[in-house]
Structures are given as C-alpha cells and as structure tokens.
Write a structure and sequence with these properties.
Number of helices: 20
Distance between the termini: 73 Å
Structural class: alpha+beta
Helix content: 25-40%
Number of strands: 22
Strand order of the largest sheet: 1-2-5-4-3-6-9-8-7
Strand content: 5-15%
Length: 696
Amino acid sequence: MASEEELFASVDALLNEEPHLPPPAERARLREAAGITQARLATALKTTTQSVKNWENGRSEPKSPRLDAYQRLLNGWAAKYPAHGAPAVTPAPAPALNPEPVAETFTGQAVPEAPAVVEVPVVQAESATSRRPAKKRSAPAVDSRFPHGPLAVLDSDGSAYGVGGIVLDCPATTVVELVEWTLRESGLGAARLNRYGKDSDPLIVLTAAAAVKLGLPERLEGHEQRRSLRLPEDHPVVKQVAKARWQLTQRGFGPWARVYRKAQGRERQCVQLAILSWDALDERSWPGVADLDAADIARILGVYAQRVITPRGSTAVSGLELMTALRPPTKAVQDPQTGNWVSGHNAGSLGTEPMDPAPPEATPEHPVVVNSGWSGGFLNEEAYQWVRSVETLSDEECVLPFAVGLDLNTAFLAAAARLVVGLSAPDHFHNPTFNPKIPGSWLVDLSHIDLDPRLPSPFTPDGTRPTGPAWYQTHTVAYAQELGFNVAPIEAYLRRETGAYLDPWHDRLKTAYVDTLADLGVTKDLDDRAFLAAMEQHKQIDPAMAAVLGAIKATVKGGVGKLRERPQGKQYKDGEPWPAMQRPTWRPDIRAAVISKARVNMHRKLNNMVKMTGLYPLAVLSDCVVYPSPGESPLDFLPYATSGKPQPGGFRLGPTPGLAKLEGVQSMLWAVDLMEKGLNPARHIKGGDAVLDEGE
C-alpha cells in the first residue's frame, strides 16, 4: 500500500504539471459562445490575433504565464457555456485579404501540382474597441500560377507558413533544394503590377533554426554593418549554389540573397531569400517583427506584399523597386521594318540606362563633379530642421501651458502626387525666363526676400534667410513667385521631356496606407475628436497591422531617400562610380523635387495658420511642427469655421497623406528650455526619426 508521502508526491506532481487546455475546436467554440472576438482576446492576453488563431486551429500552444491565464479564462467559459447546451456557431467570414481555403491535410510525396500542404482557415472579426465596422474590401484575385501567395516563412521543421494561414510542407535540406522546391512545387509568387512589368519572384524567409538546418550560420559577424556582410565565396553553401549552376547577384549571399538562372523564354527562374537572424528585417522599419513566430511574420509580410510589393530587401529597396514595377522601363513594340515584336522604351518611365545628373544636382563625390572640376554649388533641397529664435517669443506665447506637436501623415508621399519631374537629360541655359511648369534646377538670388522671422524661410532647410545666389528646384522658385516676389534666374539645368513618374507609386502607397489605418479603426469618416481617440489606440488594436503601417511609412521615406544613395564603405575614393549610381533610378533631381514640394507645402500651411489663427510655430523637423497651445489637444488651436468644420489651407486632422495627427504634448517651459539650448523640440517630441535615409 502506498504511503502518505508517496500519495502527496504524486498529487504535487499533478499540480505542477502544465495546465491542460481543451481541444482547439473547443477553445474556438467557447470564445464564440462568449461573444468575444479573436482580436479582443488577443488584446486581453497581450498577444497577437494571429497567435489566437494558431491556438484555435492547433498550430501552436501558448506558454506560461499566458498559458495559465488562457486556461483560467477557458475554464470560466466552460462553466458558463457547457458543450451540451451550446448553440450552433456560425463561422465568421474570411478576411478580405485572405480568401478562406478548405481545411484539409495532404500527405505523401509532394508533386508540382499539389505540394504537401495544410491549409488553415483564418477568421477575422471586428475588434471590440472599434467604433465602426471595418471597411469591406473585395479579396484580390488569386493568380492560378501562384495559388499560395507571394511568400512563405520557413521554419526548421519544414513548415513553410504563407498568407491566409496556409502551411506548406517543404522537404528541402539544402539551399539548392529549397530554391528548386520553391520554383517547381510551392505555388509561390505574385503577378506583375503593370502589364509591361515582370512577375514578382517568390520570397522565402528563413528563421534562424531553418537557416542553420540548411547549412547557413545562425549569425553573420564582422566589423561592417550586418546588412552589408556576405558569406565568403568559399563557404560550402555558396559552392553548392554554384555547383548546381545557380547564380547569385553581385551582392552575394547576404541577408537578402537572390538566387537565379537566366530566364527560359518568358519564365523567370529566381528566388529571393531573407534570413531573419542576419537582420534582414531592419528593426527601424519592422520593429519587433523578426522576433514573432513564423505564422505572424508571414501574415505581416503577406499583407505588405499584397498592398505594396513583395519585399526585395530593406523597405528603402522595396520602395525603389515599386517605382520600377509600376513604371517598367520597356514594353513590346513592333519593328516597322521586320514586323517582329522587340523590346522598346516605355513612355513615362526612366528607361534602362542611368542618366548623369546636372552638376548642381549631383553629390560632391560624383564623377560629373570631380571630373569637371565643378565649383558652382549644389542643390540644398532638404527637409526642415528649424527652431525659432527665443527672442521672437511674445509674453502671450510664453504663458501658454503646452507645446503640441503635429505630424503630417506621409508628407513626402503627399508631395509625390501629380509631381511633374524630368525624364530626359538636363540641358544648360543662361539667363532663362523662369517657368514654374518646367522641372529642373535654377540658380537664383532670393536673398532680397524678407519674411517674418517667426516663420522659417521656405528657401532653406534650416529656415534661415538666403545670403546670395543659390541653386533651387522648380517648386522652391515657384513659391517665391507665389509669395509675390520677382525671380530672375542666372542659370538653369532643365529637362525637355517630363512626366508624372511617381503618380502610380503615390496612388498604390496611399491606398495601402489608408486601408491599413482603416484596419486599425482609423477611417476617413471619423470627426476630429474621434480621429484623435482612434489614433491613440490604433497600435493596440492589432500590433501586426501596426507593423505593416510602419513599414509602409518607411517605404515612402526610404524610397525617396534612395533616389540619391551615396557611396558606402571606407575604401571608396571621390570620382569613382559606385553601384547605386549605375541604375536608372539614381535620380537626385527627383528626390529634390519631392522634398522641395513637401517643404513648400509645409510653409504654405504655416503661413495660412498665421492668417487664420495668429499662431506661429516653435519648431519644425521634417514633417512635424510644434505649436504653443492653451490645451493638450490640437483641437484647442486648429482653425475651425463656425459650422465646426476645419478651415481649409491650414493644418487639418485626418488619416489621409498630407493631413495631420497629434505627435506629442509637452510643457511650454520644456520647449522654451530646448530652444534656448539651440535644440529642436520637434526632434524630441518625435523621438528623432530618420529623415529620408539614403544609405540603406
């Protein structure tokens, strides 16, 4: 007979065991019986909606302490809603982005037409914190060539997690096998974004464990930035790739590796690989995403791929690639002599060859500058970094209790709308008559223009008054005319062929931005007070979609910045060409046009605010402006008509690019203290975000 000590030891062992959860289907039944959405449950348990979905379809299990809390909740629901008395539950509709597949498991040897796959239905319900139903959108058409979406995240057990909850069984044990499986069996890829473009290559994202299983090091170590590191040419994996007659791009096998063979006919043979543990997902653009589980990463990247583009590198690289995907450089044209169809220039694109900038548009190390001995100065079209002089503050302003920061939603994206840029090489002119419709660079003396010192000058990034002749982009000179001043250009580099090159880029990113905000409960129909409340909570509603939103914003800034990517590496010498300037999208003049228009738009709003409210800003950093305020909300100082509607021309709140949102609130004394030290309050309110990074 067992002793008392043995019996108590056995009981204690049972007590110490992990909580035992009911079957996945029962978990879903209990939640639905309680009328709780997956999103609300995820918020309560401090996790993601996708994780709750995974628990309810049996793909993963929670871990303590979340496991204990989940068990307690399920036990409570089970007491209220016993299985024998539960009414039939109607499944929630599938999400707009992910058509719901049939839950079915295929076993056995994978074949090209039907790889081993587990398709898990994904259910999306409205968040309990949302004030309105989410905007309904039709699901994107599924291309029969790519039935499993644009990408997958591969884990070490061979599970490749795709969009819509799909899980593919990948048997590959080497990089070469992975590439061949992806092209022949996975059903991954995405259709072209333009009729003259190319389909997006499939993307396989590797977790750290998956990378090690395929023979790759878990981390890349070295003195350079990790994103610049590459496997050495004698690494076994690189040798395997070459032996199998696959090729790597000049960038080698790094965090974003492209493995390809020359296309056969119209069929491309190329796979993009991204290694998470090699920092493929930059923390600045994808904060916290690399640390999520594979299914959540697949959901986030999948939404980005469907709304923007399949990632091909950093968000800056993807922003630049999106421009080319929407404006392909070539199209099929018929040779009038032979009647054959050949590749020809696609009007409105940047073509296939790089174009030298005008000397003032280049960077000091560019061959155009070094080889010509150019010393005539350069464009300085950059975003604002201005702080108002403390001496210009009035007593009335100083006694206001708050400093409120307003941030313009994707201001540089708004500036790209209907922006006419040059498409041909620059021509040099002396003493030209200014024409605001011609894109280019103008040497003009604007130092005679005297403006209110309580506003930044619209002609310089630091807001100071010009001191003599300088080079300006067309929008800057046109604004001087708009303000009523005469302009007499001394020289100009102008382009005869022009077009709104960035229009489709703007339209796609604007739609992606607005739709993603709507998924987070921030919709166009909200009034200003409801908009501010929704913006305060939007990141908590669905952290995964909040990550997508951040990546979209980074794509805009990074894409514009990369139009003037400068040389990298300590070995570079001035005057030598560098890789970035060899591409048609190395166009510093287009970058200058976007920034010039954005800065002019900002000054126009600042000027209109003075006319409507008498308020002057304390500081401006890029797309953020700080105002003194009697209250904590922008509602306390923004201009409204007697009807209650926002006044046009000044700053207005809303989710659309170019409209404003609350960025931060501090005390007025804090702001004045920073200004006395020569610091910009906007930088501290915003947390010092990067401005049009060129180095990615």
